[in-house]
Automatic annotation (TrEMBL):
Name of the protein in its database record: Alkylglycerol monooxygenase
Membrane-spanning intervals of the chain: 64-81, 121-142, 283-301, 313-333
Any one Pfam family match given in the protein's UniProt record, by short name: AGMP_C
Species assigned in the record: Cyprinodon variegatus
Alkylglycerol monooxygenase C-terminal domain boundaries: 286-371
Family the UniProt entry places it in: Belongs to the sterol desaturase family. TMEM195 subfamily.
UniProt entry keywords in alphabetical sequence: Endoplasmic reticulum, Iron, Lipid metabolism, Membrane, Oxidoreductase, Transmembrane, Transmembrane helix
Catalytic activity, EC: 1.14.16.5
Domain Fatty acid hydroxylase: 68-199
GO molecular function: glyceryl-ether monooxygenase activity; iron ion binding
BP term (GO), one: membrane lipid metabolic process
Length: 397
């Protein structure tokens, strides 16, 4: 990501990542892994269960044939996981997170859904009838890892590789909200599935990234969950039960009387002149948010390192602290009036956690400066909250 930032600045003369959007994407990536603190991954657990109880044959784990077959199998299943995630509204509610950035860079790859993992495992289960879990486990990881590097605008065209592989060029189309981009290029590693099943589109007009209706927020839980609320409200709007059900299981653009996936012509027209949501916020806050983000990233890392030694209660408490921190930093980016109060409370919790050694400084030598920095942060936000309260009271008088 840092390399992309440097090379991007040299190639285009401007930063290809913004702090607000980049941090929101990395935050989403962090949140998507939080369930792994308290439970095993759904994908492997369900897979192991089917393998143990229902397998029909055992492909030899050490055969090259098994290796290549699993590579194709996982990528084929991924195509369908991904296609369903776009074509079924309740699954889209989870997957829209990945598409919610109006930028396209390597941080966008990390913008992952918290809830998608609870349904995606179903699609891989047929493989458990024959493919050993050890081989499957490797390929599901490789498939995910491969998809990191394709989230960049810096690689334009890869010649003959474009015929077979999913590349930055093809995946840019997938992230576009232009009419020609909607519901296209679902492939993971290979693009041949899209060519085969008729969902391929080549990059042509300038791609405008993000959701058809951009959410324009850095509030991380809103990014993750807003679409569920929207779907619930949409379903309540309809009287007929069939329409209520269709709201959840048909395409996100579906309306009564329209085909299953809705009519994309109804969506807002893309002119090519759209600019991503990038609010102005003071440099001092940018430095502040960066420091606190690095601190919470360290806490997150340490939590995963030591999760086996911690009680479920501690893990839940620390998870809440991380969510609160990422939410509060998002509020500061948006400069919401409530951010002072929320951040003051968070700093109180942070000081307490530091005191009781639940939090530690990344470098032991810096533990005193870190504590001083957090205490000063608390003082600043407490004063801000007081002055806000005072001005509200004055207005009321
Ligand atoms: Zn997608
Ligand atoms: Zn993507």
């Amino acid at each position: 990501m840092l390399l992309e930032l440097v090379v991007g600045a040299m190639m285009t003369g401007r930063p290809v990542v913004t702090l607000s959007d980049g941090l929101t994407s990395i935050s989403a990536g962090m949140i998507s892994r939080l369930p792994l603190l308290v439970m095993r991954g759904c994908e492997l657990s369900a897979y192991m269960y089917v393998w143990n109880h229902f397998r029909l044959l055992e492909l030899p784990w050490d055969s090259a044939w098994t290796w290549w077959l699993t590579f194709l199998g996982v990528d084929f299943c991924y195509y369908w996981v991904h296609r369903f995630a776009h074509e079924v509204a309740i699954l889209w509610a989870a997957h829209q997170v990945h598409h919610s950035s109006e930028y396209y860079n390597l941080t966008t790859a990390l913008r992952q859904s918290l809830t998608q993992q609870f349904t995606s495992w179903i699609f891989y289960l047929p493989m458990a009838l024959a493919v050993p879990p050890s081989v499957f486990a490797v390929h599901i990881q490789l498939n995910l890892l491969y998809q990191f590097w394709i989230h960049t605008e810096l690689i334009r065209d890869l010649g003959p590789l474009e015929w077979v592989f999913n590349t930055p060029k093809h995946h840019r189309v997938h992230h576009g909200r232009n009419l020609y981009c909607i519901d296209k290029n679902y492939g993971g590693i290979l693009i041949v599935w899209d060519r085969l099943f008729g969902t391929f589109a080549a990059e042509s007009d300038k791609v405008i990234y993000g959701l058809v209706f951009p959410i324009k927020t850095f509030e991380i839980l809103h990014v993750q969950l807003h679409y569920y609320v929207y779907l619930w409200k949409k379903s309540k709007f309809y009287k007929a039960l069939s329409n209520k059900v269709s709201t959840f299981i048909k395409g996100p653009s579906w309306k009564p009387g329209k085909p299953r996936l809705g009519d994309h012509v109804d969506n807002p027209k893309v002119t090519g002149k759209e600019v991503p949501h990038d609010p102005n916020w003071p440099l001092s806050f940018q430095v502040y948010v960066t420091f606190h983000f690095l601190l919470v990233l360290w806490t997150y890392h340490e939590l995963f390192e030591s999760k086996m030694m911690l009680s479920q209660l501690t893990l839940l408490g620390m998870t809440t602290y991380i969510l609160l921190t990422l939410t509060s930093l998002g509020f500061i980016i948006e400069q919401r009036p409530s951010s002072a109060f929320l951040e003051a409370i968070r700093c109180v919790i942070m000081v307490t956690l530091l005191r009781f050694n639940y939090l530690r400084s990344p470098i032991p030598l810096l533990s005193v400066p870190t504590e001083a920095f957090v205490s000063l942060s608390l003082l600043y936000w407490a004063l801000q909250s007081f002055s806000q309260l005072f001005s509200i009271k004055k207005k009321a008088d």
